[in-house]
């Protein structure tokens, strides 16, 4: 699956994207993770990558100084903008994390992404790291949320490519099947990769989600 095909997949499932947050047990884990993220990003000027429908945006906006929520899909941004942001501190922009073009004049102290990192190919890590650092600078705070591989819940892996990236087969609303890149990195793999570009790396997991925080070198 190419990056363009991944974007097309999420455009097609935008209307049902948040259904997963209604699943028993996952809903509690998502709520707990969102609260931790909100605490971690308090008072920061946040760049959010892959904001999707704004589920996580709504939480971080409660404590952040400001949020620029970005996504590659217009339909996702339209849904995200329909939410009520009490502090009115959220702006939106279309952006691709592999070719990150942001509005001029904006400065950020932190970057946040939920669900994005499992869709980054292993061979693209360096490119995405570079884009994030160019946006928030050395000393910038990075917070990532990703999905765990949960037995009897997570769709099975359909194949693994030569780089070690794993792929799932998922059903679209029309019943057709597509292949979606979805990596489930181990703690040791994440720490090893992030150690080259960051310090103060902290990694935690609940049943459904992992959370990584670090400060860019």
Automatic annotation (TrEMBL):
Keyword Lipid metabolism applies: no
Assigned keywords, A-Z: Methyltransferase, Transferase
Pfam family, one: Methyltransf_25
GO molecular function per UniProt: methyltransferase activity
Gene3D superfamilies per record: Vaccinia Virus protein VP39 (3.40.50.150)
Highest taxon of the lineage: Bacteria
GO terms classed as biological process: methylation
Keyword Transport: no
All copies of domain Methyltransferase, residue ranges: 46-140
PANTHER family named in the record: TRANS-ACONITATE 2-METHYLTRANSFERASE, TRANS-ACONITATE 2-METHYLTRANSFERASE-RELATED
Name of the protein in its database record: Class I SAM-dependent methyltransferase
Lineage: Bacteria, Pseudomonadati, Pseudomonadota, Betaproteobacteria, Burkholderiales
